[in-house]
């Protein structure tokens, strides 16, 4: 078993944090997407979408997509339950993780992919107007999240979950995407510093 990744990419970091929270050790193999490593026939056979991370099992089966990989390990080792417990708990975590993925992470990624010069040869065509349009969308979600965090410790409730992992990685991804986090969002800042201080955040 191994995970193919590029350490500087945000999605592999989500998996690393998840595994660190679980205390699960898996070997990582580094690939450089900037040098075309994800476009080789060997990698395309594993993941046609040419994205990392990819979990390669001992029998050669490949599992791509960040949340699919995390769910695989959640099933293998249920505790701590990072996808929630019980019907309501799991649904709430799923709801908030999707909001973090589609409302925040996606917008930050689009700003990065369509505006950063380093992505010009990978995001063809780069559409600067689309990148700029996603910046205020990301900030709108942060303001909403700030209001929500006034009444609870973590994004989906009183327990750290995969939604917090997605939110943390998305916010850290704002720096290379050149989106400034509004300093006046006190509840968001409290949460951000708390989850950033967890040992897993350094994974």
> Tell me about the biggest sheet?
4 strands, mixed
List the total number of helices: 7
- Mean pLDDT score, rounded? 97
* Main sheet: strand order: 2-1-3-4
Return the string of H and E elements.
EHEHEEHHHHH
Helical percent range? 40-55%
Structural class: alpha+beta
Question: What fraction of residues sit in β-strands?
Answer: 5-15%
Uncertain segments: none
Oligomer: single chain
Outline type? globular
Number of β-strand runs:
4
Give the CATH class of the largest domain. Answer: Mainly Alpha
Distance between the termini: 19 Å
Give the topology:
Layout: E1 2-5, H1 10-22, E2 28-30, H2 41-46, E3 54-56, E4 62-64, H3 66-76, H4 86-115, H5 128-148, H6 162-173, H7 186-196
Parallel strand pairs: 1-2
Antiparallel strand pairs: 1-3, 3-4
How is this structure best summarized?
The chain is an alpha+beta fold and 203 residues long. The protein has helices at 10-22, 41-46, 66-76, 86-115, 128-148, 162-173, 186-196, and strands spanning 2-5, 28-30, 54-56, 62-64.
